[in-house]
Amino acid sequence: MFWLIGLLANRTEAALVIEVDFSGDSQYQSVFESAASTWQSLLVGYQDGFVVSRSFGSSAMLNSQLTTVSINASVVPIDMAGGILGQAGYTAFAFDQSGFKLATNGTMEFDSADFVSLTAAQREALVLHEMAHVLGFGTLWTDNGVYLNESGEFTGANATAAWQSEFGQNGTPDVELAGGPGTANGHWNEFDNGAGLTGITDGLGRDMTFELMTGWLNVGPEDPFISELTLASFRDIGFTTANATAVPEPGTGGVLVAGLAVGMGWRRRRSLAEK
Questions:
Q1: Strands 101-111 and 239-241: what pairing?
Q2: pLDDT tens digit sequence for 68-126
Q3: Where is the Ice-binding protein C-terminal domain (predicted)?
Q4: pLDDT at 84
């Protein structure tokens, strides 16, 4: 069946609308609703967003305020079970008058061999991760001047400040260089292909290896979480954001993706090549 998911945010709270056209079983509809709702609550709009030019195929209107990102999602064969869980990226974009390159349309593909066997919580984490790539995480860094390919260092001022304050690190945030195309240069860095702890922790003691936007989906004593670092990186590419602490799980200081089960850490995720 075909489902159209349009989550129209209250404009007094969020200018971003994420619309997902999902081709698949209706039981998966709520996964996309939840992911879109989460990102809408965290990415509350654009610093500018007034469209002055657009690419072919973009749904953005010229000389208008950008409010909507339209995503086509599907569950299709990508590789064999235990390989790539999903891949995503933007397919069209617009430039605003401040010079930010912003995604307006995108695609999300999920491997049918893996997706059908995941728990609901695992699917939620996967869709959240891939939706972030459509919105620009990793896929629009270079074009917005905050990452030099193969440098391993994210240079945006907001993310650098968060890296230092949230994780107590010096310099700029480390970007993954391992894992091959789609993993390298588009995620926060981990060690040993996600097999071990990084030793880089936030104020709650959560290791960076469990951050949602690393290249491998790991399990451990912590559930995957969305850090202030990730939200700050979105500010560096044109968004305005809430704080991760604005929508915490009870008893925590940040956004958690709860309930991942054992067996996910060895499966690699990647994003589509930039269009």
A1: unpaired
A2: 999 999 888 888 787 777 778 999 999 999 999 999 999 998 888 888 888 777 888 88
A3: 246-269
A4: 78
Prediction pTM value: 0.86
- Looking at residue 248, its amino acid is P
112-128, pLDDT tens digit by residue? 888 888 877 788 888 99
Q: 129: part of which helix (H) or strand (E)?
A: helix 120-135
**CA angle (173, 244, 46) in 5-degree steps:** 80
Q: What's the pLDDT at 8?
A: 40
Calpha distance 228→132 (Å, rounded): 14
Q: Where are the alpha helices (DSSP H) in 28-107?
A: 29-42
Output the six-digit token pair for 250: 């009870």
Token couple for 171 = 């310099």
Query: Residue 79: phi, psi to the nearest 5?
Result: -155, -165
**Calpha distance 136→88 (Å, rounded):** 10
C-alpha span between 160 and 41 (Å, rounded): 23
